[in-house]
Write a structure and sequence with these properties.
Pnp Oxidase, Chain A; FMN binding; about 20% helix; Flavin-binding protein; alpha+beta; about 200 residues; 4 helices; nine-stranded antiparallel beta sheet
Length: about 200
């Protein structure tokens, strides 16, 4: 099934192309690990197969934004249980809060999704269980005017991938390939490794 490095790399690319387009795709919600060794599940919003970049949405006030600003190393873990495919990736992350791409992502979001950026900010302490949203927006979709303050908290996490570790779990014997490139402009170089 996967008997060439090109096939393994194509499998990675095809899964990442599908992931942001299909909410039911197993790799739609990868685990993102920052340089402080903190991990969280995030929604993959876009994948650029030419540049091998991932785009996710975040809050500029989130602790990960400050971590990435100081240490841009990011790891990403994808897993497709049904296909028994795991992809571990590493790259460089950047937080973008301004520019055409950020504006386009904000414009493409629903008001219900945008309301997440109205609250206190990720990690804000509370004495009671809380969504972090202002009370008037609990279970309610704000209008455009009410969302104006939220825009300043919205940002993109863009990750340029530089290494891939692809693992196919098979009862007949696992198969693993690794790929690396020196920078975003370089071609991928692959090798088979023991699982």
């Amino acid at each position: 099934m996967f008997d060439t490095l090109d096939a393994a790399l194509a499998d990675c690319r095809n899964r990442l192309i599908r992931a942001p387009r299909d909410r039911k795709a197993p790799m739609h919600t990868p685990v993102i690990i920052t340089g402080d060794v903190d991990a969280r599940v995030m929604v993959l919003r876009a994948f650029d197969p030419a540049a091998w970049t991932l785009r996710l949405h975040t809050d500029v006030r989130a602790p990960k934004a400050q971590v990435i600003a100081g240490d841009p190393r990011v790891a990403v873990l994808f897993y497709d249980k049904g296909a028994k495919i795991q992809v571990r990736a590493r790259g460089t992350g950047v937080i973008a809060s301004e520019g055409d791409e950020v504006e386009a992502a904000w414009a493409a979001s629903t008001n219900f999704a945008r309301r997440c950026y109205l609250g206190e900010g990720p990690g804000a302490a509370s004495d009671v269980p809380t969504s972090g949203l202002p009370a008037e927006f609990e279970r309610t979709e704000p209008d455009d005017a009410q969302l104006l303050p939220a825009r300043e908290n919205f940002a993109l996490l863009k990750i340029t991938l530089t290494t891939l570790d692809w693992l196919y779990l098979a009862h007949t014997g696992h198969v693993r390939a690794q790929f690396a490139r020196k920078d975003a402009a370089a071609a991928w170089e692959g090798r088979w490794v023991s699982p």
